[in-house]
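This is your field. Have a critical look at both lines of this record:
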Amino acid sequence: MDFWDSFSDGQDLYLRLTGPVCARHGLTRTEFHVLMFLANNPRFSTAADIVEKRHLSKSHVSVSVRALQERGFLAGEYREGNRRTVHLKLCPAAGRAVADGQAAQAEFGAALLRGFTREEQQAMQEFFRRIRQNAAEYRPAETEGEGKKDGASG
C-alpha cells in the first residue's frame, strides 16, 4: 500500500465512525469539525483559528458557527479590550454531541493504533512531528520560467 493511500483509508474510517454522531445530533460535517476543534483545542477560540488550523473555508465555518449558535451549542463573546474578535465557547447544550464525537475520535485512534507497542506509537508520533515540521519549513526554490520547475535548465 502506498504511503498516501493510508491517509485516504484513515480518512474513510474517520468518516465512517463520526458519521453516525453527525446524524444522531443533526450536524453537518463542518459543524462537527467546528465543535470538535473547539472541544479539543481550548487555547484556540476564534473562527479564524478554525479556518487556519483545519483548512476549512471561511464561508463554511461562518455558516456552521451561526447554525451552532442558533441551536445553543456555541456562544460568541468579546474579550476585555477587544471588540473586534469574537471568541467562541461551547455551551452546555453541545455536551452530548461533543462527548459522542470525542468517543468516536477515541475509537478511531484506538483502531489506527491497534497492535502497535507503546514504543512504536511514540516513534510514530515523533516521525509525524518531523514530517509536519518539514512540511511547514519547506520552501520550493525560486524559479525563473516554466522550464526550471523540475530543476532542469531551460
About this structure: The beta strands are 74-79, 82-90. The first strand starts at residue 74 and ends at 79.
